[in-house]
Amino acid sequence: DEPRIESPRKIIIEEQVKLLVPHTREQVIELCHEALKILFDQNKDFSNRSAIKCQIPNSYFKYDAQDSDNENIRRNHHAYCQMIFDLCIELLNEMYTENIQLEKYPEWQKTKLISKRFYRGNKTNNRHYIEQFIETKILEILNLNTRQIKYSKWRVSNGTRNGKEKFEIILDEEIRRTESQWIDYDDDCMQLKFDIADSILDQLIQETITECLDIVDRRFFFSSNSTRL
């Protein structure tokens, strides 16, 4: 057997990934502040998404922009600023939107609620509070701000608990999770109304058919008697 010649390993030089859009928390906060200032100057209400005026001046895209000859860097910076601006619009629209589905319902049907977010319908006249809230939310979306996840006491495991207590905790957590489904009677009420309507319609159809057959029998009876005479 010929000796096996191993090929020399390729030397891989790991290059540091360069951010085409370098950003920090301070830069994002300043961009949010500028975007909200533009939006509040152009709009008074943000409940209608299609009616929100969003004319962005060129000064917004040039804010904190680094002079560069690279077209990709300038283009990516423009897209990044546009993304921050769009996020501000979406969050403002969520805060000013009511917690109902904007549809026309019949008078006998109750308006349905949509799944409420903690900031939906949280409209406030305090502009400083709105700016702080949106800045914090965008920092969380961009993973520039650590989000503290708080668990309830029912999800905290304790090694001293026995099997029965753990089972009761799991059962209680499951009941809490599905509570909104079995305490909502809207679907049951709707189904009951349709069942009653179907029952009334079937009864009317049956009575109509019976009445028509009775009329046909009478006509046949009278026609047969007249023929005999």
TrEMBL record:
InterPro entries: CEP350/CC187, DUF4378
Domain DUF4378: 70-207
Example of a GO MF term: microtubule binding
Domain of life from the UniProt record: Eukaryota
Pfam families found in the cross-reference section: DUF4378
One GO biological process term: microtubule anchoring
Gene Ontology CC terms, in alphabetical order: centrosome
Name assigned to this protein: DUF4378 domain-containing protein
